[in-house]
Structures are given as structure tokens and as C-alpha cells.
Amino acid sequence: MPNALTLTNLFCGSLAVLNLVYGRLEWVTGLVMLAALADLLDGMAARALGVTSPMGKELDSLADMVSFGLVPGVIAYGLLIAMGNGGDWPTQLQLSGLPGLAITLASALRLGKFNLDERQHQDFIGLPTPASTLFMLGLLAIYQHQGKMLAAFPAVLPLLYLLVAGLCWLMLAEIPMFSLKFKSRGWKGNEIKIIFAALSMVLLFVFQAIAFVWIILIYLFLSLGTVKQ
Questions:
Q1: H-type helices in 50-155, by residue range?
Q2: What's the pTM value of the predicted model, to 2 decimals?
Q3: Which of 78, 154, 191, 225: CA 20 to 30 A from 7?
Q4: How far apart are CA 96 and CA 99, in angstroms?
């Protein structure tokens, strides 16, 4: 059961990549959310059934590499080309978008470090790959709503390159960031996490997928100084 859920994560991430390649952008966010749900449930199922294994851990990282590594890189690739091409999503390979795949490379390094880093059992060091993916999904949602208009502004394309570089740096930086693992059931000790979760729900209700950009920015702001390395 846990491995089946992990493979569901991988399958949904693969479908998201295919939809990005063929320009079916309306399906991407839903598929990534299904991948994230499967990623959450596989660990819960393994612990509940008492069947955790090194194989499951390795398989989980391989699935995450697609859903939370390749997917955001392909989103960045498409956005970079679109912003330099009048807002049109790419239909063929263009070199100008290849720097977007730096997110995929940084994600691979991030996942490799996470598997070996004994400091990240409760909280994180560096931006988690799912958070990077959510940020890119937010940018994709903005593009879907206002892509043509945004492409008309010359500053948008260099800003997008800077955002790609910033995400790569944040994933690999030695910056403590909190996780949503609750240490207890009460308010005490979980204040920041509860506030962040509640605020995220409100933003999602109001702005839908576009809210992911603001949610990750808030997450970064709250993380500064809230977790001691």
C-alpha cells in the first residue's frame, strides 16, 4: 500500500509534466495536488502498517524528484519562453527557457541533502521542494490569468530569471525553515504553524492557486528567526 501511494505520486507528477509539454495547463495544479496528497499518505500508511523500509524511502525520493523537481523546472522553462514570446506557451524546444531547469537540478541536490541530513527530522534546512513547486504553480496561475498582459512588460522576463535563481538558492541555503509537523496538540509551541495554516486557507479560498505565491512568501518570512538551527 505505501509503495502504491508513492507510485501514484510519481504517476500524477508524470501526467503533470505531459500536460505542461502539451499546453494543457488547466490540469497541472490538480495533478500536483494529487501527487502531494499521495506523498503525504504514503508515509502515514507505512507508519500505520509498520512496513517502513529503505526501499520505500528511496522510491519516495524518486517520485518526489518528478512531482516536485521536474514539474517546477518545466513550469519555469515554459514561463521563461512565454514571457519572451508575447505570452504564448512554447510548442517546441527553445534554448531561452533552459535556465528554468536549474530548479530541477537544485531540487535533485536538495532531495539528496535531505536524505543524508540528520538535522531535518523535525524542521527543514533550506526551502523544501514541495514549497518551491507551490510557488511555481502560483506563477503558472498568474500566467493563466494575465499572461499576455505580463509579457508586454520588459521587466517581467528578467524578474522571472531572478526568481528562478532565488528559488534555487533558497533550496540549497543553510536557512532553518519550519515544517507543519505539530509537536503537540495544543496552541503552545505551535503558534506560528497554526497561524500560517489558517492564513494559507484564507488566501486559498480568496485567490485560489494564485495564492501559492503569497503563501510561500509568508512561509519564508515566518521562517526567519522562528526555527533555530
A1: 54-65, 71-83, 102-116, 129-151
A2: 0.92
A3: 78
A4: 7
